[in-house]
Amino acid sequence: MLLQQATFYSCGTGIDMTGNGLGSLVLLDSTSVNSGPVIRFYDSSHDSGNRNSQFLIQNLKHDTPNAIAVDAHGNVALAATPYVDTWVWGTVVPETYQTGASWETKRPAALVVGDKYFTKAQPTYQDYSAADIVNVKTVSGHTVKGDGKTDDTEALNAILAQNADSCKVTYIPFGVYRVSNTIFVPVGTRMVGEAWSVISGYGDNFKDPNNPRPVVQLGNPGDVGVIEIQEMRFSVGEPLPGAKIIEINAAGDKPGDVGLWNTMGMVGGTADTSISSACTSQDPKDCMAAFMVMHLTKSSSAYIENFWGWTADHNIDSESLLTIISTGRGILVESTKATWLTGTGSEHHWLYNYNFHNAQNVFAGLLQTETPYMQGQGEYRAAPEPWTAVAKYGDPDFSWCAADDQKCRTAIATNVDGGSNIALYNSAAWAFFDGYWNGLYNEPCNGNCQTNMMRVTNEPQNLVWYSISTRMTDVMVLDGKSNPRQSDHRGGWEGIIQVYGQFTA
Q1: What per-residue confidence (pLDDT) applies to 185?
Q2: CA end-to-end span of the chain, whole Å?
Q3: Helix, strand, coil percent values for the chain (each to nearest 5)
Q4: What is the pTM of this model?
Q5: Nearest CA to 1 among 31, 25, 30?
Q6: Sequence-distant (≥ 6) Cβ neighbours of residue 329 within 8 angstroms
Q7: Fold for the domain defined by 133-500
Q8: What are the pLDDT digits (tens) for 109-158?
Q9: Domain residue ranges in the chain
Q10: Which are the contacts of 81, defined by CB distance < 8 A and separation ≥ 6?
Q11: 476-491 burial code (b ≥16 CB/10 A, e <16)
């Protein structure tokens, strides 16, 4: 659990964790005003099994003489102090379980405004007049259908260019907008969907995995300006192994100028795509449905809040639940200027769910992943197959695994490859099934599903990683140093590391 920028005002107790029902908590960038203890907690440090109720406090302001943290028996763990930089109760890697440890966290300057990590609320456009809102279906000279049949590429591109030049908000009513070529989103764009209006790629332009192309492209490298997108779903209407669903190149003059809110990148699972009925083969090569969900390129700087990148594990609106899809990659972050990922999920992608490849100045809070259900022991193809690991994109090639080690050749939940000033908070990475996938959720894997869940390589500088939770893995973080194992860090659903400090500054 991540609580960010919370204010406790005249509270007897801010957070009650005495029931021991919560595995891990991070309290970040918060304030306690005229309140009693900020946290009351169950002390699990002496428990022989799961050690729950682990928590970390970072950047807390506190204005009373009341203790900040007390256990269920009233014992003071953290006494009153006006300011807490970083304080932890829980497992610290490569050290031990800490019952109250203090230190300083080096925050990248590019990621903070004032003394807090930057956040930006979803725009409302309440100051815009009705004339400033353009419905794409009512633009003279451009016919847009959104009927799931018509090719809307040319018309959408023309309208987006026109609205960006005239500072209009582009309203995209609910519908499925098929596109056979890249939709280019220029700086100056403000795009609003309705209940997740869908832009869906199809056709030969997106079929070559050796020449991947974006379905939706936000700016060109070097572009600077405003792009705001909300309430949209970006997808593929058929298996397209050369489709990057979203590519972000643009940056803003100030933080949050380029932003996505309440938006999804989806592969399969819905009636608007042929993938929902066509992909039932156990061989993932038969449904290589997308090259990548999202790519934040080196030139980009974006704020992304409430984003779900999903390769479907089941059909949402079909009588048959069974669907077997292989999406090559989840979210690739190569940006260096400043990137914020707040409340994102990336699930069931083949090589990795998140990959921070030579990235710099990244904040990510609440990262949720699931490993593809048909990977692991008994799988039809072992990663990277059926895909080819491409060095240009920083793909993990699984060369650290034996050729026949199926549990090792499974998707990395979060891959940190070099880079610097990366701050990750509250990662939850789950595995459930392995091998043959019947779509019925009734055959969980026997023991652990995979060997390695997270991975860190090439010595990232100042990697700050707080609260890692895993399920059904052997090694929580493969780093070539401590390689902390889940069996040694029991807590939460199965495993907790409250502080991963192997590469902190």
Answers
A1: 98
A2: 25
A3: 10, 45, 45
A4: 0.98
A5: 25
A6: 291, 292, 293, 349, 350, 351, 352, 355, 393, 395
A7: Pectate Lyase C-like (2.160.20)
A8: 999 999 999 999 999 999 999 999 999 999 999 999 999 999 999 999 99
A9: 2-105, 133-500
A10: 62, 68
A11: bbbbeebbbebeebbb
